[in-house]
Amino acid sequence: MSHHHVVKGCKLVAVLLLWLGPSAGDTHTACAHAVEHQEPTAHSSVGLEEVVIVIQSQRNSYHTRRGRQRRAEILQQAAELGQADPVVVLLHELSDYDGDWSILPALPQLSSTYGKSASWFFFIEEETRVTLATLLQVLHRYQVQEEWFLGKSLHDNEASIIHHYAFSEEPASFSYPEPAAGWALSTPLLQRLAERIQLEYLKSDFTIDLKHEIALYIWEEGNGPKLTAIPEFCIEMRDNCATTFPTYLPNCGNAVSTKDVFVAVKTCQRFHLERVPVVKATWEKDAGFLEFYSDVTDASIPTISLGVPNTERGHCGKTFAILRRFLSKAVPKTDWLLIVDDDTLISLPRLRRLLHCYNPKEAVSLGERYGYSLIQNGYSYATGGAGMVLSRVAVSRLISSGCSCYSDDAPDDMVLGRCFTSLGIPITHSPLFHQARPNDYSETLISLQQAISFHKHWDIDPVAVYKHWLQDTHPRDEL
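The structure corresponding to this sequence follows.
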């Protein structure tokens, strides 16, 4: 029986005691012992062969390679310990379904394949370093017959739009795991979640912030366990860590040249005086090739009209016109296209460093990944406000496929995601892209990142946000 079920039962016993009187004291004592036994103990014996390590890998070739390297390192470490190997699963290889990245669709298969032999499922990122001996020490503290949700605890500092303003009265009251530090589910909990996901529909069609939504699903409005904070699950290197995470911005060598990236900024006449000056005062100077696309031509900026009227919601028509222009001879030929909104704040030097990890000869769609209806075999997409990065190959395949907008005001990022899914082009995720403002994220989390983008100017000084979070202090790379 899980810890939360025992506690609920004991609350009921306490009520009965008030009615039955002192003669029920033995029952009270037994219940107290039951609760006591739910606390972590040091005599739960778990071997590595009972641990399934799920590396949250991606289908892009760079990420596939990194996932396989991490798996090899883990298995080598197990051999050096003289223990049986853990099961190491690359998430993108679990099935053919791209939506497995959102974890919930993958739970039934993880349960049916490994549930009978495993005691723990431990989820890590491709770059998460694991010390297996310390991980086992952590897992030994918890009874494997019970429901446990373990991780490095994060919380919101204020109510956040990306979390649908959940716990708005006390944002810090709800904890969710930092994926880079790893998080674990005991098998009884994973199996119950797998059964739930097959029997009920999710309340939201959208997957926006996986770590928060997983924690909410597990918590089940108080009917499931909360996250148990594990001090040995770390980001920074320090003593006695079971996990560490060296960097969010991988070092793949020199940044790609400014002449390898074409930047398209979507704007409209309404925001020429309000938002365009912010772009010019912050990140425009780091662009090699950049054009502003508007509903009107304004030589003072300058802007280019693509003949698509401005729309209040969604900019699919404008975005597809940008894609066609990118492939034409009207603009310089580059390997990469970056499409951003006029209220996107972005670090182009950091983006160019990240892009060196990717092969421009592949079809690449890169950004902050969201999902739509993933439990019902939906699709993923890179959020537009955070910035959508496309390789020339991806743009060419998309346009030649005939996939198009169902209306000019359709959500461009979702339409692109649907098109790429139909073409078998994966949406590649980087946690350094952000659809919202810095204060919409855990301060603990973003203070450890070298963020690439933020979005929206609501209730902030965008220039100050850029200088604090995105502007590097060293001289710009002028490649």
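The radius of gyration is 25 Å.
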